[in-house]
Amino acid sequence: MSPVAFYPVGSPGQPWGEAERTQWRARQQRLRRFDQDVLPRIEALAGSFEPVQYGALDYAGETYPLLALRSPDWNPALPAALVTGGVHGYETSGVMGALEFLEQHAAAYAGRINLLVVPCVNPWGYERINRWNFDAIDPNRNFRQGAPARESTALIELVARSKSQFVLHIDLHETTDSDESEFRPAVAARDGKPFVPGLIPDGFYLVDDTENPQPAFQQAVVAAVEQVTHIAPADEAGEIIGSKVVSRGVIEYPLVALGLCAGITGARYTTTTEVYPDSPRATPAQCNRAQVVAVTAALDYVLAAA
Known about the structure:
This protein is an alpha/beta fold. Helix content is 32%, strand content 19%. The chain has an eight-stranded mixed sheet, with helices on both faces. Strands 7-8 form a two-stranded antiparallel ribbon. Strand 3, helix 4 and strand 4 form a beta-alpha-beta unit. The chain is globular, with a radius of gyration of 19 Å. The N and C termini lie far apart (52 Å). Keywords: Hydrolase, Metal-binding, Zinc. Pfam families: AstE_AspA_cat (PF24827). One of its GO terms (molecular function) is metallocarboxypeptidase activity.
């Protein structure tokens, strides 16, 4: 195996300080616009859903509203479901899938379950096509009280208003080739640790909760998504991204212990989707559709089980 070049910010073995974070930030370019791609679609949905601004970010004079859409006439007697996208800003189908679900399918669930949908948790990262926020922090390891990522703590505060009602949380993600070429090397450099190469799985998979596994629920989602795109196989070690495959297309993480988004509601049914947009067997539209199908399959399962 050829040696891996060190990430071009910082020094090997030394965690970043403010100088390195500033250097990293200077490398990030605004490649797309939240206010052009995402915000108009959220605003267009305001006639059918209640818009909620649950916070705001100000990063060096660039401001971003943190926005959610929720069922109008929220019913305290009904269960609730949370759908989140764009926790990692570069994972495009999570954002677009959440919006497509709202535009095309959410109305079918009116009066049956309360919906809270946050299409783009990390708008600064969305614009830079980056995993992290402005401070080189991964929001998806910081969903805990007092964490340094405002993207994470603001969402926790929003969910707390109705936390006891949530029976479902589906968090929409992607695993991309850039995880291996950019983002895992970056986190190793930031933390002063060696980078250990891994494998990117070709296909869709789910992340269940180690502390609250729901295998029948996960398999129902996998079966629905398989009609849209292929499911990632286990590697030679029986793993996907270093975790044991517990059932076809499913691995487990301890969601709360790792500070992951899917752990914030305490819902019985939780899952994190992982779409592979770099596959030669998948198109962007297919990836968006896979996210939508995952959401509808999860909702249908939960409602049938109620």
